[in-house]
Design brief:
This protein is mainly alpha-helical. The protein has helices at about 1-10, 20-25, 40-50, 55-65, 75-85, 90-100, 110-120, 125-135, 140-150, 155-165, 175-185, 190-205, 210-220, 225-240, 245-260, 260-275, 280-290, 295-305, 310-325, 325-340, 345-360, 360-375, 380-395, 400-405, 415-425, 430-445, 450-460, 465-475, 505-525, 540-545, 550-560, 580-590, and strands spanning about 485-490, 495-500, 570, 595-600, 605, 610. Among the domains are: about 1-105, no CATH class; about 310-380, no CATH class; about 405-475; about 485-610, no CATH class. It has a six-stranded mixed β-sheet, with helices on one face. It binds one DNA strand through α5, α7, α9, α11 and α13.
DNA sequence: CTAGGGTTAG
């Protein structure tokens, strides 16, 4: 940045067309680059030079004016492009008024289009529309910019209206126009409309391309609708549209979200064949996919092979270490990252702090939390505060966590109280838990998880009146315990276990096996934790009920069907109960088998009677 | 000068 600033301040910059000399000085390749042929990278560089030195830019603009230079539309356009890409609305507005002040025509096709685009990308639709309306000659680019602007804001009536009126100007919508609409619909969770827009592309005589389909698939992914992502990917292949690395990176995200390890591995093979592994987005997606599907080793391998690691790939790997309870390793990877000259961001610290909390590294956590603002000038966000509450609370420093909440500069939200409540449950502190719950019931009255945690605490202390009171509270607030399910993949089939749905076809055999298993587990010291049952029934009934928990059934089924040496991978949609957590540890011990479980909150890796979460979850 | 891509979170 220092060097750029110096360039901006030197006087020879002042020859027009605006800014070109600077770009030429910055450009490594050519001294004869025409302004209109600036590469994206160079425009970005210009943007960087604008950043933080806007006063200098203004001074130069003034100087140029005084010297009688006139900027032309192409120079204005390249500045606007840079400003747009970096989302410097303030600077964009300045340039707009500079254009007006200096008698440049802001209705010029090029200037107009880049102004529309700048306002659209900076969330100023009304200004974009004003410029648009005043443009004398509108080309398809201006239309597309505005239509996608409305579409991304979810204003589909306006977007469709614009689409209809394109024709009146004698212009035909192109694929980009349509793709903007597809993308908007998909992003807003309106997959049906997105898909029907793809069909509309066909009826307009064009052929939907990989971008159209990728937009649809990406929208599903963004809405955590991973199953549809995969469904539409198949549909895309049926239409003979080839995936590119962008499509693949989204698919990897979908596989990660569903912990579909086998599908992810398949895609990895495809990536190697097609050379997509070279793409940094794909590589990062692979790390994430392996990390979330329980194959830490593969995640690490992919990471080590990346030649030009980006901040995101470092972050992703630090998070993987954190997830698997390798807090110290996460921190040394952070040191390695800094050694490589990569500056951390807020996400890096979320990952690091979460690594500390999963490994109980309280001192290291404090150090990192402090160094964020002092050494890296990154203001801690609510997530970082929440991590700290979690870190302190889990390590049994409940009083410190309480003080931390009282003194933090941000208003504690549900994540803060949620972290505190979870710690109270672990350390069985009912008094603190009740305060946390009171806040949580106010902040998110419809989240069943909070009620369940509290019931857990009350039933531990045999306070059945309070359990009933909470059940009534839930009922009155209209909170329903969502469906609870666990599943496991055996060969190509997914086996679902749900308390509400149909029992598994092999239910009899599974229960038979489970009884045997529990018998063996008890020999090694397993004791059913009946506090997980919130009904006031007798002990034998409670123990029976515990056996029907979906995760136990899924693991048992996995043990019955696994190939020797293969770990078991179970996915559950809600937080694992503490009895099932203990049971899984004993199961891994008895059957000498690694068990991987992804629950609604985090990842557990059971091995030889231990879990990577260190019993805090 | 216009369209699609990765990372955190109780």
């Amino acid at each position: 940045m220092g060097e750029v600033l110096r360039l901006w301040n030197c006087s020879e910059v002042c020859s027009f067309p605006l800014l070109r000399p600077t770009v030429l000085q910055l450009s490594k390749h050519s001294k004869h680059v025409a302004n209109s042929e600036l590469s994206k990278k160079e425009s970005k560089f210009m943007g960087h030079s604008l950043h933080g030195s806007y006063e200098a830019v203004q001074a130069i603009l003034q100087k140029m004016q005084d010297a009688g230079f006139k900027p032309n539309s192409s120079s204005i356009t390249s500045v606007l492009q840079a400003v747009t890409e970096l989302c410097f609305l303030k600077h964009g507005k300045e340039i707009h008024s500079f254009v007006l002040r200096n008698g440049l025509d802001d209705y010029d096709v090029y200037v107009g289009t880049s102004l529309v685009d700048m306002y659209v990308k900076n969330n100023c639709l009304s200004s974009a529309q004003n410029v648009f309306i005043n443009m004398k000659n509108k080309n398809i680019f201006a239309w597309n910019s505005l239509i996608s602007g409305y579409s991304f804001k979810g204003l589909f009536e306006d977007a469709e209206r614009l689409l209809d009126s394109i024709g009146e100007e004698g212009i035909k919508p192109n694929l980009v126009t349509w793709n903007g609409l597809v993308s908007g619909y998909a992003m807003w969770g309106r997959h049906k409309e997105a898909l029907s827009t793809i069909h509309r592309i066909k009826s307009s005589g064009l052929t939907p391309n990989v971008v159209s389909w990728t937009a649809l698939i990406s929208g599903c992914s963004q809405n955590e609708n991973y199953a549809d992502s995969l469904k539409f990917f198949i549909q895309m292949q049926e239409e003979c549209i080839r995936a590119n690395s962008a499509t693949i990176s989204i698919l990897l995200k979908a596989c990660a979200g569903l912990s579909l390890l086998h599908k992810g591995e398949e895609i990895h093979c495809l990536c190697i064949r097609k050379g997509f592994v070279e793409d940094i987005f794909v590589a990062t997606g692979l790390i994430n996919m392996y990390s979330k599907s329980g194959k830490f080793k593969s995640a690490h391998e992919v990471f080590r092979k990346i030649k030009n690691k980006t901040l995101a790939s470092w972050n992703c790997m630090i998070m993987a270490f954190a997830t698997y309870g390798f807090g110290k390793e996460a921190i040394s990877l952070f040191d390695e990252m800094r050694g490589a000259g990569v500056q951390p961001d807020a996400i890096t610290f979320t990952a690091l702090l979460s690594g500390c909390k999963n490994s109980g590294l309280v001192d290291e956590g404090w150090k990192l939390f402090d160094s964020m603002s002092t050494d890296y000038n990154i203001a801690p966000t609510i997530e970082h505060f929440s991590c700290m509450v979690d870190l302190l609370g889990r390590a049994s420093y409940l009083d410190e966590a309480w003080d931390f909440i009282q003194t933090m500069p941000l208003k504690p939200d549900a994540t803060i109280w949620g972290a505190f409540l979870a710690s109270c449950r672990i350390h069985k502190n009912l008094a603190f838990a009740e305060i946390a719950a009171k806040n949580l019931f106010k902040l998110e009255p419809h989240n069943p998880a909070n009620y369940v945690l509290m019931m857990n605490l009350y039933s531990m202390s045999n306070r059945w009146d309070d359990v009933e009171r909470l059940k009534d509270l839930m009922k009155n607030a209209g909170v329903k315990n969502g469906l609870v399910w666990s599943w496991i993949q055996i060969d190509q089939a997914i086996h679902m276990f749900s308390a509400e749905g149909k029992p598994h076809t092999d239910a009899g055999k599974i229960y038979f096996e489970l009884y045997h298993l529990v018998h063996e587990m008890k020999k090694l010291g397993y004791e059913p934790d009946i506090s997980c049952v919130h009904q006031n029934i007798d002990e034998v009934e409670k123990k029976k009920l515990l056996l029907s928990h979906t995760e136990k059934l899924a693991i048992t089924f996995g043990l019955m069907n696994r190939k020797s040496g293969e770990p078991i991978r179970v996915i559950k949609n809600t937080r694992v109960c503490s009895d099932c957590h203990t049971a899984a540890k004993y199961m891994s011990l008895v059957r000498k088998c690694e068990i991987f479980m992804k629950d609604g909150i985090r990842f557990h890796h059971f091995r030889e009677g231990e879990c990577t979460c260190n019993d805090c979850w």
